[in-house]
Give the backbone structure.
Amino acid sequence: MRLVVLGANGQIGRELTRSLTPLGDVVALDRAGCDLARLDMIPGVVHNTRPDVLVNAAGYTAVDKAETDEALATLVNGTAPGVIAHEARKVGALLVHYSTDYVFDGAKAAPYVEDDPPSPLNAYGRGKLAGERAIGAAGGDHLILRTSWVFAARGHNFLRTMLRLARERDELRVVSDQVGAPTWARDIADATAEVIRLAQRERGGRQFNSELLHMTAAGAASWHGFAQAIFDGASDRIASRPTLRAIATEDFPTPARRPKNSQLCCDRLRERFGVTLPQWTSGLERCLADLRADAKEP
Ligand SMILES: NC(=O)c1ccc[n+]([C@@H]2O[C@H](COP(=O)([O-])OP(=O)(O)OC[C@H]3O[C@@H](n4cnc5c(N)ncnc54)[C@H](OP(=O)(O)O)[C@@H]3O)[C@@H](O)[C@H]2O)c1
């Protein structure tokens, strides 16, 4: 099987390159290999790489910047996925694509299910929702995996920001009224590999249905609770632990509005593929162990 990964330099993309290797030949393309802002580049890339499975882990992920850069965010997150899906269909490839909890407004009192009506609060969420719809409209075999609050040992993420700020500040104010599931990129990549393995089997038996599925770690936390767990787990890396203060969203204004409830119900993923991601606390523990191992390398 030939698997092509777009966005191979991102948090999820880097982990996918590793997790997908047991399934076949992996072709990992970074932005230079396939720039989604250049729609004319996409057909040639798909045609030349001839994937059986195409995984799109590329995305415009700067949520606040997207507010003033919506045209580019929408091109990359909304339009390009439709072109990718169209090209994947032409070569008979399964398209796996990632979307986000930010398609919801967060007003629901329980975890969101796939059929809940989306209502994004920000430009990033609007672009991602457009991407989901464009993939559906292309009509090829696809799986859209909505995930949330991704962290990894490398890249831009909350875990790394907290570890840096802990070295720079005595006190940190962190929002405690937004709740979601912090999800380790490696757990997403491993779960994606299993989903692809089973989906390809379904396709072989002509029993495959394209679907939108929620895929996050189990459990939930606020950003404040996540920060607390990071400082508990990384106490060996932090010389003097800063005081953590819980604040309300209103006290930490950002260009993009964010949902208060980001929790996604992942029952459908479990029911179809038997896949459940570990608790977010377990992902954090293993990611911190990875960071420690990296630090020990000469
Ligand atoms: N991060 C989260 O919390 C989160 C939550 C829910 C869903 N998601 C979704 O999960 C997917 C992967 O996210 P991630 O956390 O791995 O993001 P990430 O670490 O920011 O990686 C995104 C990758 O996309 C690449 N990229 C950006 N613009 C591109 C373009 N025009 N053409 C080609 N590549 C481009 C970036 O390339 P460079 O390395 O060159 O910048 C980067 O390697 C995205 O679809 C995202 O929307 C993420």
Remarks:
- The chain has nine helices and twelve strands.
- The radius of gyration is 19 Å.
